[in-house]
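User: My collaborator sent over this chain with a note saying "see what the structure looks like." That's all I know about it. Can you take a look?
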Amino acid sequence: MELFERFYQDVLARSPDWKLIWLQVMGGTLSIAILFGLFRHEARAIVLGTLMGLAMTLVVYSQFGFTRIIGVGQILFWTPTLFYMASLQGTATVTRTWFGRWLWLAIAVMAAALMLSYGDLIRYMMGDRLVIAGLNA
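Assistant: Without extra context I'll predict from the sequence alone. Here is the result:
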């Protein structure tokens, strides 16, 4: 729990306002999968991928600190989760349902989050390995 608290404090202290708002949008959108998970096995798979990505983010944070490589946890688990979510589109059980409508939104949010994470990973691999310092993150 101490690791999560340190991570949370770093997120608040080192992230610009737009990123904090983005994290709220992302968390709110993806947390809806929990409600759909009560009725749909597809949503449970999305919850699992999301939680594993977040857990791996904490593992990476514990090893590298608040650096640009931190998004690799999302990359490892959210990329296959995103492909799975996209594969559900157009299936008879998803088309024209509330789950299907939410799924489009979740795909867009997860894809945007992954683009940011891949961008940070590229920056890290190109040598930007310092701890993210604050508002210019």
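A starting point for your reply to your collaborator: The chain is about 75% helix and 0% strand.
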